[in-house]
């Protein structure tokens, strides 16, 4: 027989396989119709996590690996029965439907034994996890899953019983009463079927919000009291719902879309003590409006498919409660058209008549952005115009990582990629088509440094590069991670780093036990700097659109400086450190690393903001600026910048010469340069060792230290509990962590373990603030009447680190081609074409001004592309290699 077989991402094959024969208790069904479900569209991009098997791992309930026959919404005719089938209930020739839910049914499984099979941890479905499927000519199914159709229901409508059961179960979960008012968010098949169910159960007023006009028209035809277009500039769904309900709000809100915007609308539109029912399957992690839940005493519940509710649904259908169900069907296609006129037509909204245009013809005329340099705005423009999808972007970036990370030049920029990234991308592509983009990061792939927590269930680790934390389970996303998710960003993977953010000991930058030794993309085997080494390398050569790094002292600015990037080290307290593996509560901060000031400003605007889990953020201004509003080409006009020359004694003479030449450019842009403008406390600042006291004590014994971080982990398979355990783990696993000859040191760990919170510690904190801020940066700005300080990026981090103040670095130049290539020990400290940057430094929370200054300089110089990475380090894969393939 013919069957559509699922092999994996974008690999569905029409094959001839053996006809099945019914075993004892089984019914053989000749398939009539099968509906295409949202999960089928998701699986086109990637197998469905949890319910799909893989090519190597069978699903535990079906014991089947890929490939599997697709289809779980189907109807057909009984053509044969096995021994023991109750033919009085299921006679030969009967028109039937199948409840495709499959569970373990073990007596030790609490959900299965308590009548909650849909909540079985091993749940899957016929047509997804195995056991045949509706996209074949025949299927054999256990009789207890088979139900006869009422005589008044044609077979094509029978294929709708499965999604109708989803809507029925959701309505039951809502405890809907006759006379209740209902708002449905999302008018896809489930939303439209939910409309039919709640009307049948007696809802007095039903509103439906949906951007697609044909779906709104369908809703009005079948009983909706009102429909709303959420994309309309004049639409106010919440106000309209309240007007229709006498100011109360809806009794019940069904979220059938599963995006942040609809969830927010649900909380605003529901009445006090009302019910919100989440029907949609979320791929991204939403932000929950707990305040509204509390102040309105709202009940938020969820629903998952169904459990033996087919008899109730079929009885309601037989009673004529859902006349006109055939209107839900948008087209009828054959086997051979499944991909082109089914999946692709639904995903890409191609010709509604089924005459698909050639994707190759479309893409041939498109000029795709070069991923080496593509800006976030360029990528967003291509996504909006439909030239490519976020799935295409993820595939392209994955291919680029594959080319250079562990092959070719072996840059070791990325520790691991996100196994959920393609699924996230597919969900965000679908959301874009239905509701439009959430904002500038919607569908944009971002790398995260491996000390920034991501949900373990997503498939990535958070380890600070150490095997000691491999497999550990974080309690939640880091706050900055959650903000990226909410903005629609795709978490592409974890970037390599100097292990423990370069706080283990004297070890070359860019080395971690898990990630190995990362190296520069500009100097073969060159020092990438750190500790955000992989974030720098990966962003510099287009392994992602941008990345997040962290800085205690130099860990964003220095790798940005040496990887030809824009990096923003924010004021301590502008971005939350909650969920980030800590070093120093007084100095740690999280910031963007990008190829342009505009991209860095875009990311910073998303991740900045207050967080109750990090009390330092409560000191920031109440309103976080939109830093993209600072992108002004005349941003240096009328500005006074000071040059603290005494810091330059440690700077390469070529860098100083290039920096000096840049001052004339900056003057030509309207700025006044005060040179020199030295710190009044420079000598004292240079001699101070207070920073060492503060950071080493913070790491072990502050209010937010590494011991506390580990204690909050839900699981730590290695058994480490504190810093002492980490030291012991490294000794016990020296072959992975303390690797000779270059990576054996953990002296900083040991020094930190020997610290205590004493008066010397508190004195050092006060001294750092005094030297770095009060008598350092702030005094210099005040004495010389300056807006900011200007210096080579190589020497900028120190004073800003102990002050907790911001810096932005921008590409300035490259060492000459005749620069001596230093020996590799294991990396080269310098070499021809090594990049360097120029830094703008300011007082607390002056990022908006610094972005403006940096943007004006960048636009006048465009230094970044004056030198590319060495050829072997530049990935070849582009979007043109992915789109339409």
What Rg do the Cα atoms give?
30 Å
- Major sheet size, sense and barrel closure: 11 strands, mixed
Task: Give the integer mean of the pLDDT values.
Answer: 93
N- and C-termini, Cα separation: 29 Å
Beta-strand segment tally: 29
β-strand amount: 15-25%
Parts with pLDDT < 50 across at least 5 consecutive residues: 349-365
Q: What would you call the structural class?
A: alpha/beta
- Shape from CA axes? elongated
Helix content: 25-40%
Count of separate DSSP helical elements: 29
Major β-sheet strand ordering? 17-19-18-22-24-23-28-29-27-25-26
Give an overview of the whole structure.
Strand 15, helix 9 (290-296) and strand 16 form a beta-alpha-beta unit. The longest helix is centred in the last third of the chain and has 25 residues, at 759-783. Helix 4 crosses helix 5 and helix 27 (759-783) packs across helix 28 (797-803). The chain has 885 residues and is of the alpha/beta class. It has an eleven-stranded mixed beta sheet, with helices on both faces. It is 32% helix and 16% strand. It contains 29 helices and 29 strands.
């Amino acid at each position: 027989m013919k069957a559509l077989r699922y092999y994996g991402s974008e690999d569905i094959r029409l094959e001839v396989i053996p006809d099945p024969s019914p075993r004892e208790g089984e019914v053989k069904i000749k398939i009539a119709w099968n509906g295409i479900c949202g999960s089928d569209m998701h699986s086109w991009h990637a197998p469905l996590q949890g319910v799909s098997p893989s090519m190597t791992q069978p699903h535990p309930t079906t014991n089947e690996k890929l490939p599997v026959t697709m289809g779980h919404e189907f109807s057909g005719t009984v053509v044969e029965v096995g021994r023991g089938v109750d033919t009085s209930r299921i006679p030969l020739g009967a028109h039937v439907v199948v409840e495709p839910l499959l569970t373990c049914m073990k007596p030790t499984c609490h959900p299965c034994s308590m009548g909650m099979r849909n909540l079985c941890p091993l749940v899957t479905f016929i047509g997804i996890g195995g056991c045949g499927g509706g996209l074949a000519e025949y299927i054999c199914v256990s009789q207890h899953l088979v139900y006869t159709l009422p005589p008044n229901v044609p077979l094509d409508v029978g294929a709708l019983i499965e999604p109708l059961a989803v809507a029925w179960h959701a309505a039951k979960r809502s405890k809907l009463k006759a006379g209740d008012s209902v708002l449905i968010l999302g008018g896809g098949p489930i939303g439209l079927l939910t409309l039919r169910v709640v009307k049948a159960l007696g809802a007095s007023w039903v509103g439906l919000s949906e951007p697609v006009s044909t779906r709104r028209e369908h809703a009005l035809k079948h009983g909706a009291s009102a429909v709303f277009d959420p994309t309309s500039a004049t639409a106010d769904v919440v106000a309209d719902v309240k007007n229709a309900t006498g100011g109360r709000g809806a009794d019940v809100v069904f979220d059938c879309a599963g995006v942040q915007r609809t969830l927010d609308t649900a909380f605003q539109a529901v009445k006090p003590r009302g019910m919100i029912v989440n029907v949609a399957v979320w791929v991204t992690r939403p932000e929950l409006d707990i305040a509204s839940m509390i102040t309105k005493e709202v009940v938020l519940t969820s629903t998952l498919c169904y459990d033996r509710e087919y008899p109730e649904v079929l009885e309601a259908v037989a009673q004529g409660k859902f006349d006109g169900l055939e209107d839900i069907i948008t087209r009828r296609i054959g086997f051979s058209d499944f991909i082109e006129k089914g999946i692709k037509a639904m995903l890409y909204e191609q010709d509604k008549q089924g005459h698909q245009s050639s994707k190759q013809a479309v893409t041939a005329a498109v000029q795709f952005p070069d991923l080496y340099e593509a800006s976030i705005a360029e990528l967003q423009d291509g996504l909006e115009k439909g030239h490519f999808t976020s799935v295409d972007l993820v595939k392209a970036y994955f291919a680029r990582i594959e080319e250079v990370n562990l092959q070719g030049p072996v840059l070791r920029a990325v520790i691991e990629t996100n196994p959920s990234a393609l699924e996230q991308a597919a969900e965000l592509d679908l959301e874009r088509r239905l509701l439009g983009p959430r904002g500038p990061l919607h569908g944009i792939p971002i790398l995260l440094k491996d000390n920034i927590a991501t949900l373990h269930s997503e498939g990535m680790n958070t380890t600070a590069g150490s095997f000691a934390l491999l497999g550990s389970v974080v309690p939640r996303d880091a706050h900055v991670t959650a903000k990226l998710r909410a903005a629609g960003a795709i978490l592409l993977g974890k970037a390599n780093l100097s292990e423990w953010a370069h706080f283990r000991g004297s070890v070359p930058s860019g080395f971690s036990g898990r990630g190995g030794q990362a190296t520069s993309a500009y100097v073969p085997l060159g020092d990438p700097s750190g500790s955000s080494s992989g974030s720098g390398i990966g962003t510099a050569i287009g392994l992602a659109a941008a990345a997040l790094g962290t800085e205690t002292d130099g860990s964003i600015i220095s790798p940005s400086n040496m990887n030809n990037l824009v990096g923003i080290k924010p004021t301590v307290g502008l971005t939350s450190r909650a969920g980030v593996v800590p070093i120093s509560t007084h100095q740690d901060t999280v910031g963007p690393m990008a190829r342009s000031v505009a991209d860095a400003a875009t990311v910073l605007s998303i991740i900045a903001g207050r967080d109750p889990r990090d009390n330092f953020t409560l000191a920031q201004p109440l309103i976080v600026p939109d830093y993209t509003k600072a992108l002004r080409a005349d941003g240096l006009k009328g500005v006074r910048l000071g040059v603290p020359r005494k810091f330059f004694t440690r700077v390469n003479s070529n860098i100083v010469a290039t920096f000096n030449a840049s001052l004339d450019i900056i003057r030509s842009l309207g700025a006044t340069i005060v040179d020199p403008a030295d710190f009044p406390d420079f000598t004292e600042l240079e001699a101070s060792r207070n920073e060492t006291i503060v950071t080493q004590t913070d790491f072990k014994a502050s209010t937010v230290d590494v011991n506390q971080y580990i204690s909050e982990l839900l699981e730590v398979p290695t058994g480490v509990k504190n810093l002492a355990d980490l030291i012991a783990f490294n000794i016990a696993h020296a072959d992975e962590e303390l690797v000779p000859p270059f990576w054996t040191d953990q002296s900083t760990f040991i020094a930190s373990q020997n610290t205590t919170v004493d008066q010397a510690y508190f004195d050092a904190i006060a001294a750092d603030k005094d030297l770095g801020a009060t008598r350092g940066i702030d005094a210099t700005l005040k004495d010389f009447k300056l807006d900011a300080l200007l210096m080579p990026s190589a020497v900028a981090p120190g004073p800003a680190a102990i002050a907790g103040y911001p810096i932005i670095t921008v590409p300035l130049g490259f060492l000459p081609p005749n620069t001596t290539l230093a020996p590799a020990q294991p990396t080269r400290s310098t070499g021809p074409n090594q990049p360097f940057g120029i830094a703008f430094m300011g007082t607390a929370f002056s990022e908006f001004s610094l972005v403006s200054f940096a943007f004006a300089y960048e636009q006048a110089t465009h230094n970044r592309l004056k030198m590319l990475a060495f050829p072997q380090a530049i990935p070849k894969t582009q979007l043109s290699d992915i789109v339409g393939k």
